[in-house]
Amino acid sequence: MSLRQHGPFILGAVASVAAGAGLCVACLHIWKELRDIRTILDEIKRDVDDISDSRFSKRKAGSLSKHNYITASSGDDDEDDFQDAIGGGDIISRHDSLERNVQFATPLVVSYDEEDEEFFREIDELLAGSKAQIKQAYCELQERQRNMSLKAEFHWRHAKAAYNYATIEGESGNTPRKKELVFESKDSAEVALRLNPKSSDAHKWYAIALGSTGDYEPMAEKIKNAYIIRDHIKKAIQLNPTDPTPHHMLGRWCYSVYMLSWFERKAAATFFGEPPIATVDEALDHFMEAEKQRPGKWKENMLYIAKCLIEKKEYTMATQWLQKASETPDALSGEEIEEEIKTLLSKYGV
């Protein structure tokens, strides 16, 4: 599947809130969301204050007891209870606990026999094939789900299959099924991360799957997820620097952030105090690294190298990359990529 098909996970994370319905209409929707968010935050703050007051009263009463040296729980339990109390709030990231687990968890050691390895090789081949083969891969993974529930290698492949299957369903117009598969993909990738936080593929597919949920999330959630997506992409690169896909993904993230309008940056700053920041040079560096790892084969990556060079006003170099992209056979690139290359060549070519 082309990263243009993966594109929504990046663009959705730093979505253009002014596009489509027009700036004025977008403003009204955004500020309505902001008012709703502030209301929720106020409610959460009141709940937290009530919880804190209640806890203080209980501890004060306990300290007066002559049996106060006997305790049934530790401070850690209190922290867990506190997180449980506020974890249901819409503005509290449901991924925060996952981030802590991923950072400190030890991979679950599960052995893989020859049969497992053969099964994974078969799935990888199917996932690199036609739409029918992708569906077949998904079905075979579904059948093995119970027997491989503790294997991270299974779950990130299931996430990949569900995501690619979701893309197919979306193209056929089955929007409800696409949504189901998108969230199924995210859930599977999250399980893979919990089982093995040192898996580059688990981080990569969690980033892709989480970003793809942006089509179904409010703007605040999409902006918040943008940071989570970025962190998982970086972790995937750290764990496997020779995989070109996370480099391209991080380039897309940086490019999307760089292209944010002033209005969109202000909207992001409303939630986080400061908006996401990236430069076109950072984006270009990541695209060039992806090209280094997969030289002369990735049409879409070449296109984005050219787009970065256009932003830098280096038109001659950009034209060279566009020409190279147009001459590169790439079965995974779609018609949109071909059309964009032609359009840019006609505009900047000499």
UniProtKB/TrEMBL annotation:
Record localization? Cytoplasm, Cytoskeleton
Q: Which Pfam families match?
A: RMD1-3
> Might you report a single GO cellular component term?
mitochondrion
Among InterPro entries, the record links this protein to: RMD1-3_a_helical_rpt (IPR049039), TPR-like_helical_dom_sf (IPR011990)
* Keywords, sorted A to Z: Cytoplasm, Cytoskeleton, Membrane, Repeat, TPR repeat, Transmembrane, Transmembrane helix
> Which residue windows are transmembrane per the record?
9-31
Q: Which GO terms describe its molecular function?
A: microtubule binding
Q: Which Gene3D superfamilies match?
A: Tetratricopeptide repeat domain
| Self-association and partners | Interacts with microtubules.
Q: What is this protein called?
A: Regulator of microtubule dynamics protein 1
User: Could you tell me which species this protein originates from?
Assistant: Pomacea canaliculata
Species lineage: Eukaryota, Metazoa, Spiralia, Lophotrochozoa, Mollusca
